[in-house]
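Severity: low
Component: inverse-folding endpoint
Summary: output formatting inconsistent between runs
Steps to reproduce: submit the following structure tokens with default settings.
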């Protein structure tokens, strides 16, 4: 007697009831799968993107906003800081290294970040083609930017004002692609890197008055052929500004003294990526716990539905079970038959639920292609998903216990006599 085949026949004999129970269980497991995938990849990406950055310095405002804008490039910057003040900070004895960032423009939503060659080196960025920028308006594309735009070395484009897409174009100068980074699986993939001088020149072009346009144009033309700063800060005698300064501590004492000194003694704000991200994860943890609770409730309801379906079907087919016993089936075989039905239902629900979870994440990513969520991988399978299957099977076994023992106690004489 093939119990597996017999159980499957019983399940497919009631397709509506079987389908609804499987779907309900699959929805609960899909929510858990999405949470597992987002939590695992989100934490890894956040940690990877902040690696090597001890402190972020920017304009006064929200510390979390400063971190999200300066490290992860997902929020609006809090403002600009004076270049002179940032240079003074970089000479502090507690500072080992600093990387200046200047932002304010984008291309099709991808942020154009002015910096020096230390920034791609911080993430061990490798070039897939071309070279790093050395002149104004030369740019290096992240792998994701290159893939989405289709640009290669030698192509040109015009940047737009602002961090988000949809603003006016800076059509006075075109950016020229001189390099494309290899896929890094970090924040570099979503950025367009150039020099700080490029960002300054882009905005200077629009702020010059009409009366000084000719002189300004001559200065501007001369600046375009001047090599940009590859390390440290750009050299200038003017009062310039940058957006953010990434800082590496020289020693552990700096973690205690430097943030306090910056926050109380300067017009700038200092924020620690590790501290702010821990705070963010704590805030997100409440929402994740609520969703996990909701998923568990749905799975519990599904388990109850499976129990009711098995129990009701058992009452309808007691005569069938008595016939099985009469033709030689043992009590244990009837018990395993019911357990098999519960296990098959939940196993099917687990497989569909995991597939739905990955599909849901794929849809979420497609709706947010340029944010942190857009860099997640929907079709990566985690070993924790095996626990989702094990959890579903446990629900199936628990839901089958009472119907299975009822089948075990089926009396041949009593049932056949009733018939």
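Observed output (run 2 of 3):
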């Amino acid at each position: 007697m093939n119990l597996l085949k017999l159980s499957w026949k019983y399940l497919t004999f009631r397709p509506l009831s079987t389908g609804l129970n499987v779907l309900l269980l699959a929805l609960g497991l899909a929510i858990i799968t999405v949470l597992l995938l987002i939590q695992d990849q989100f934490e890894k990406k956040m940690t990877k993107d902040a690696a090597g950055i001890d402190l972020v310095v920017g304009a006064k405002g929200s510390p979390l906003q400063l971190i999200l804008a300066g490290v992860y490039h997902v929020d609006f910057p809090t403002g600009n800081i004076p270049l002179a003040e940032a240079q003074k900070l970089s000479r502090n004895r507690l500072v080992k290294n600093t990387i200046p960032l200047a932002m304010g423009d984008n291309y099709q939503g991808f942020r154009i970040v002015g910096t020096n060659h230390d920034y791609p080196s911080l993430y061990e960025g490798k070039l897939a083609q071309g070279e790093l920028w050395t002149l104004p308006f030369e740019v290096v594309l992240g792998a994701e930017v290159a893939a989405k735009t289709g640009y290669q070395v030698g192509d040109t484009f015009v940047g737009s004002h602002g961090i988000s897409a949809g603003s006016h174009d800076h059509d006075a100068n075109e950016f020229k692609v001189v390099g494309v980074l290899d896929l890094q699986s970090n924040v570099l993939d979503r950025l367009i890197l150039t020099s700080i001088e490029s960002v300054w020149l882009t905005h200077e072009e629009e702020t010059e008055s009409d009366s000084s346009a000719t002189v300004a144009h001559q200065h501007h033309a001369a600046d375009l052929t001047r090599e940009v700063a590859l390390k440290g800060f750009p050299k200038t005698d003017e009062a310039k500004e940058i957006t953010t300064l990434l800082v590496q501590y020289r020693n552990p004492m700096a973690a205690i003294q430097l943030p306090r000194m910056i926050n109380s003694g300067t017009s700038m704000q200092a924020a620690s990526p590790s501290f702010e991200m821990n705070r963010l994860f704590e805030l997100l943890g409440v929402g994740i716990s609520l969703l996990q609770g909701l998923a568990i409730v749905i799975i519990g309801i599904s388990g109850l539905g499976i129990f009711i379906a098995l129990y009701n079907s058992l009452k309808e087919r007691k005569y069938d079970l008595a016939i099985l016993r009469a033709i030689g089936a043992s009590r244990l075989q009837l018990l395993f038959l019911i357990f098999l039905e519960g296990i098959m239902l939940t196993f099917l629900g687990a497989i569909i639920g995991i597939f739905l979870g990955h599909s849901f994440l794929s849809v979420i990513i497609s709706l947010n292609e340029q944010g942190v969520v857009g860099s997640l991988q929907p079709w990566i399978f985690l070993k924790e998903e095996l626990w989702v299957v094990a959890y579903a099977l446990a629900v199936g076994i628990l839901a089958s216990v009472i119907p299975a023992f009822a089948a075990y106690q089926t009396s041949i004489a009593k049932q056949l006599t009733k018939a």
